[in-house]
Specification:
78% of the residues lie in helices and 0% in strands. The protein has 195 residues and is mainly α. The protein has two domains: 1-62; 87-195, no CATH class.
Length: 195
């Protein structure tokens, strides 16, 4: 099989995830929770799929990394929004947790834009774990109900990911996407490039 023939596929999957964001926002606004859950599940699965396809067909690219980061950010933001019309009681008692994480990551992404002129797209294991934990919290919330401990666990992991993000911004003067190994890999890159 000619893997170069499918190099467009990961970005197409990511663009489809991006296209789902306004639809998800509309479904949440309209309080159509069933269709929202179905599309959200597909969008979250596509996040796993696009990375796997990119590695499988050797189609990892700077464009793909940037698109994936943008899609992740917008998908998380639409989830944060959707909680309000679909489960507003979560914000009543625990909204400060969600707000704190959103502010922390907004500052992290702004710092990336100032440092590199684009999103950092580090995609470390810790950052991915934070996105997974928040996605799991959201799916459990929308399908089964609110588990406060899952929100706090997801927020804690996301906060650790943001701290890692800031450290890597400090360590890497040049845009260096897809550093699965996190700070350890950033230190190796720094030493190898004599920064």
């Amino acid at each position: 099989m000619d893997s170069h023939r499918y190099r467009w596929l990961p970005n197409a999957i990511t663009v489809a995830r991006l296209a789902s964001v306004p639809i998800l926002a509309y479904l949440a606004y309209s309080k159509m929770e069933g269709p929202f859950i179905a599309l959200l599940t597909a969008a979250l699965l596509s996040d796993v799929l696009d990375g796997w396809v990119a590695r499988k067909f050797s189609a990892v690219s700077a464009l793909g990394a940037s698109l994936d980061s943008l899609a992740d950010i917008l998908l998380v933001l639409v989830i944060v929004y959707a909680i309000w019309p679909l489960h507003p009681y979560v914000y009543t008692a625990h909204g400060w947790v969600i707000l704190a994480v959103v502010v922390l990551w907004t500052v992290a992404h702004a710092a990336s834009l100032l440092r590199y002129g684009r999103l950092a797209s580090f995609h470390t294991r810790l950052i991915r774990t934070g996105i997974f934990a928040f996605s799991l919290f959201a799916l459990v919330l929308f399908v089964f109900g609110f588990l406060p401990w899952l929100l706090y666990l997801a927020a804690f992991i996301c906060a650790l990911g943001a701290i890692e993000h800031f450290i890597m911004l400090y360590l890497l003067p040049e845009w260096t996407p897809n550093l699965n190994g996190g700070i350890a890999e950033a230190l190796k890159k720094r030493r190898a490039n004599d920064w």
